[in-house]
Amino acid sequence: MSGIAVNSLSVVTEQLKGTLRHPHKLLNLISIWKGDITRLEVDAIVNAANARLAGGGGVDGAIHRAAGPELLHECKQLGGCEPGEAKLTKGYQLYAKHVIHTVGPMNQDAKVLRDCYLNSLDLCQTNGFRTVAFPCIATGVYGYPSDDAALVALSTVKQWLETDQHDQALDRIVFCVFSDKDLELYKETIPKVFI
Predict the structure, then answer these.
(1) pLDDT by residue (tens digit) across 157-188?
(2) What are the TM regions of this chain, as residue ranges (predicted)?
(3) Of the candidates 9, 8, 6, 20, which has an alpha carbon nearest to the alpha carbon of residue 189?
(4) Phi/psi of residue 104, each to 5°?
(5) Is residue 183 within 8 Å of residue 146, measured between CB atoms?
(6) Greatest C-alpha distance within the chain
(7) Per-residue pLDDT tens digits for 65-94
(8) Where in the chain are the domains?
(9) Domain 30-188 sits in CATH 3.40.1410.10
C-alpha cells in the first residue's frame, strides 16, 4: 500500500471556495480530507495522544500501530505530555516523517484545545516542516463536542497563519477527518471562519 501525497488530495476547500463570494486567501493552504491519517505523506502528522504518550485507542492507537514499536520506545523517553503541550518524534514506518503528539482537554477547555494547535504549529515552524495533518483532537474518548472542536481548530489555525511571523511558514495544513459527520462539520465551519 502506498502513501497519499498531499498535492494529490481531493481538496474539499477547492469546492467550497467556489461557493464563497470572497474566498479568503488562506484557504489555499487548507485541505479537509476524509481518510486514514497514517497514510498521508506529510512532514508531520499530529497525534491526539494521551498524557503518558503510551498509545491507546482511536487515532493514537492507529498511529502507533502503523509506526511500529520504535515510536512507543521514543515516546517513553519524552516523560509524558501535559494537556495543550506538543512533543515531537520521528515517524518511523509511517509515510509522515514525524509525529507531533499533543494532549487535548478532557474538560472541554477551549484554551487547552487552542494550545494543542498552536504548539503543534510552532513545532512545525521551528523544525522547518512545510506540511502537517491534524486529526480531530479531543473529540473521541475525551468527548469534546465535534462542532465546537472544528470551530476552535479552524479559527486557531487561521489566527496563527495571519500573524506576520507565520504567514509563509507552511505550504499545506490538512484537517484529516474520519467520519462523514466530521467532514460535513468542517465544510459548514470553513465559511464561518475564513471570511
Answers:
(1) 999 999 888 878 999 999 999 999 999 999 99
(2) none
(3) 20
(4) -80, 170
(5) no
(6) 50
(7) 999 999 999 999 999 999 999 999 999 999
(8) 30-188
(9) no
Cβ atoms of residues 59 and 135 within 8 Å: yes
DSSP string covering the chain: ---EEGGGS--HHHHHHTT-SS--GGGGGEEEEES-GGGEESSEEEEEE-TT----SHHHHHHHHHH-HHHHHHHHTTT---BT-EEEEE-TTSSSSEEEEEE--SS--HHHHHHHHHHHHHHHHHTT--EEEE--TT-STT---HHHHHHHHHHHHHHHHHSGGGTTS-SEEEEEE-SHHHHHHHHHHHHHH--
Rounded to an integer, the average pLDDT of 106-110 is 92
Radius of gyration of the chain (CA): 15
